[in-house]
Write a structure and sequence with these properties.
406 residues, alpha/beta, Rossmann fold, seven-stranded mixed beta sheet, two-stranded antiparallel ribbon, binds S-adenosylmethionine, SAM-dependent_MTases_sf, S-adenosyl-L-methionine-dependent methyltransferase, methyltransferase activity
Length: 406
Amino acid sequence: MEEGPPPPENLARDHTGVPPKRLRKFVYENGREYGNDSYYMPCDQAENDRLAIHHRIYTHALKGKLTTTPVTSDTRRILDLGTGPGHWAVAMARQYPHTEIVGIDMAVWDIETTEESVGCTGVNWEIDDLDVWGVEDDFDDLKRRLERYDMAHDYANREPLSASKAAKLKGHTSASDSSQPHTPSDSAYESYALEPEAQPGWHFSEPFDLIYMRGMKGVFAYWEGVYDEIYKNLNPGGWLEVVDFDMSLPNIEQGVDNFPFPTLAKLYLGVMQAAFKSGRPVGTFYMHPTYLDDAGFTNIKQTYVNVPIGQWPEDEEQRTIGKMHLVCIMEMLESMLLRYLTQWGDASKDHWTMEEVQSMIEVGKGEIMDWASGTDRFGNIREGWCASYKWIIGRKPLDARDRREM
Ligand SMILES: C[S@@+](CC[C@H](N)C(=O)[O-])C[C@H]1O[C@@H](n2cnc3c(N)ncnc32)[C@H](O)[C@@H]1O
């Protein structure tokens, strides 16, 4: 990890009274700029440009719509968690000018350019670290879960992880299990520990009618806590929407050895292994309905859309999107892999060099180009390649207690 030169002064404007970007701490690593020393994706101009393209893809997938939740005249306050450069937030502000929109992120992004692109400044930007829980600290449990991870069976890690850390979220540890009575003669008895521990949580001044998060895989380790906080910070009748995607991997169900692209397979597995080693597993498991159900949400509904990757579709509009999608995925390789593999490594070694990651990415890109353009290494012509985009929504019941009573 290096501290690099200060970024150019015009990279970002600050809207919240925190020091301007040039005075804030950023982490410069392997030629990229990161918002902190743990989240795996960068927050520099290249990533900003990639997220701008990705926003168009998400919107295209919904045929121009920005949300699958009902936005009505009663929808007053909207929160975009992990807003990044704020493309969704500014688009919502333009489409629903009667709403008050808050975009929150731990990194300072080039918000000014996003606002200029739609001619709209109706979003309140806040800078804050939402991860009040930290990493998964039971590394043995993580190791067991990684061993159970089966790329051929669940390549995108979609199955929910066990709710192993409910105790942490409730603020106890097994050593001070309050379900067991203690007496002053117990070594575990601690008269000064009788006050309840402070609960980790978010503190917004007012609740919201819609809380949205997109592209947040790998951000948190304690998703149960995230959904509880979202629930608490919604008005009764308010909606949650979570959006993300994963790529289909051709023939993967027949085993990694039959996957036509060995380098991509190694990189894909490397991402999973590095994420587990980092203490924040990655995958779309966090969008499983059980998380919403457990937190108390009702009216849970999922929407899936397949979006083409590459120029294979015959339909001209789909082909344009497929081309954009391909560019976005090529760029995403470095954004996702560089920190994961240099900082945590895969199962084979703890740290890759930047050069090793970059040269694997080049080979991986070649494989993607082969795939996207027609044949695999076995000479098979394949069906079109897609990524699966998913929206999951849930509603806080109208008769739920509001936050002040919880
Ligand atoms: C893949 S980007 C998605 C950005 C945006 N939602 C979009 O769809 O364009 C993930 C975002 O999560 C933010 N993030 C990561 N860790 C965070 C944390 N602990 N607190 C707040 N934001 C965080 C990153 O800075 C980044 O902007």
